[in-house]
């Protein structure tokens, strides 16, 4: 099946015994020791139905695994666990999310990938190189997959930091751009989505540390504590980025307001200068016989000179005040 990336049996000593097919699982589990590790990529309903039949999985968990678009969570179904984790990739300034659904039992681990997510083939290979750890069973394989997912959040945060640095240069370059404000808004929204993906990981790890003793042996619990610590540090970095991003948006809006005020001040200054000749012209434009210096030979040049001088004086005062 094309959706089956990998399907293998592992011995109690943590070594890969052989590959197998999904149809063989119901015959293998009752007789063989160790556990089965299956990797699926966007499987169809028929394949998931077969997986449900072979492992006796709950229909609600299978339904969630098929539809995807689930929140990060951990749910208990009988003797097994169903875990949903959000995966993230930062490409070309855009954040893309995917999901990995994990079915954990004492004798099996099933991973189901949807959307933006790198494969776990190298994770499996690294585990197979450490049989002393893989002998702890399916719970250690679960740790390895979860650790990869959380590790992949770090490059996403680095991508956000780089993108934010680029936008900060645009914010402080002295020119307003609607596109810059939109980029800030989209980054802030993406950070909120990333935080919603990371925060539940800590609670999931805490449950695996404290509960489910039949599935997670004591020797594996410290590994999940390490994931929780890593997720906490990433969440703190996200909170810092959110504050920085909010500050950048506030600065951008403040700078836009300042530039608008400068424009208004200049307009008001020139309006005040133009008001002087307008006032004089309006006075002498009235139809009265008796007006100051109306019959005087030098009245017209004198009025022009006084008007120009008053405008020049007002211009110099506004210039010093920074209004022009």
How would you characterize this protein structure?
This protein has 324 residues and is an alpha+beta fold. The chain has two domains: 4-256, CorA soluble domain-like (Beta Polymerase, domain 2, 2-Layer Sandwich); 257-321, Magnesium transport protein CorA, transmembrane region (Methane Monooxygenase Hydroxylase, Chain G, domain 1, Up-down Bundle), CATH 1.20.58.340. The protein has ten helices and seven strands. The protein has helices at 25-28, 45-55, 59-67, 121-128, 131-134, 138-151, 153-171, 178-210, 221-284, 299-321; strands spanning 4-10, 16-19, 35-41, 73-77, 80-91, 94-105, 108-115. A seven-stranded mixed β-sheet has the order 2-1-3-7-6-5-4. β4 and β5 (80-91) form a beta hairpin. It is rod-shaped and about 125 Å long. The N and C termini lie far apart (75 Å). The model has no long low-confidence stretch (mean pLDDT 79).
Largest sheet: 7 strands, mixed
* Count of helical stretches: 10
Q: What structural category arises from helix and sheet content?
A: alpha+beta
Proportion of beta-strand residues? 15-25%
Level-2 CATH architecture of the largest domain: 2-Layer Sandwich
Number of strands: 7
Concise account of the structure shown:
The chain is of the alpha+beta class and 324 residues long.
């Amino acid at each position: 099946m094309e959706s089956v990336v990998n399907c293998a049996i592992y011995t109690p000593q943590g070594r890969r015994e052989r590959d197998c097919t999904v149809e063989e699982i119901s015959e293998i589990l009752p007789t063989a020791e160790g556990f089965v590790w299956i990797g699926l990529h966007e499987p169809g309903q028929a394949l998931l139905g077969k997986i449900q039949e072979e492992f006796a999985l709950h229909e609600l968990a299978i339904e969630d695994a098929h539809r995807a678009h689930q929140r990060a969570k951990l749910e208990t179904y009988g003797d097994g666990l169903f875990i949903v984790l959000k995966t993230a990739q930062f490409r070309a300034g855009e954040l893309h999310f995917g999901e990995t659904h994990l079915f954990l039992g004492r004798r099996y681990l099933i991973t189901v990938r949807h959307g933006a997510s790198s494969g776990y083939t190298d994770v499996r290979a690294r585990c197979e190189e450490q049989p002393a750890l893989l002998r702890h069973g399916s719970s250690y394989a679960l740790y390895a997959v979860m650790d990869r997912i959380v590790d992949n959040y770090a490059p996403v945060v680095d991508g956000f930091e780089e993108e934010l640095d680029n936008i900060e240069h645009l914010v402080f370059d002295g020119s307003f751009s609607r596109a810059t404000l939109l980029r800030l808004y989209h980054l802030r929204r993406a950070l909120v989505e990333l935080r919603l993906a990371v925060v539940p990981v800590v609670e999931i790890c805490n449950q695996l540390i404290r509960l489910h003793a039949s599935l997670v042996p004591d020797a594996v619990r410290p590994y999940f504590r390490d994931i929780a610590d890593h997720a906490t540090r990433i969440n703190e970095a996200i909170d810092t980025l959110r504050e920085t991003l909010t500050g950048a948006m506030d600065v951008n809006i403040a700078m836009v307001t300042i530039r608008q005020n400068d424009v208004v001040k200049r307009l008001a200054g020139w309006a005040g200068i133009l008001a002087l000749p307008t006032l004089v012209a309006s006075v002498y434009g009235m139809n009265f016989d008796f007006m100051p210096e109306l019959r005087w030979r030098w009245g017209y040049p004198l009025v022009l000179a006084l008007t120009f001088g008053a405008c020049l004086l007002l211009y110099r005062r506004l210039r010093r005040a920074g209004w022009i």
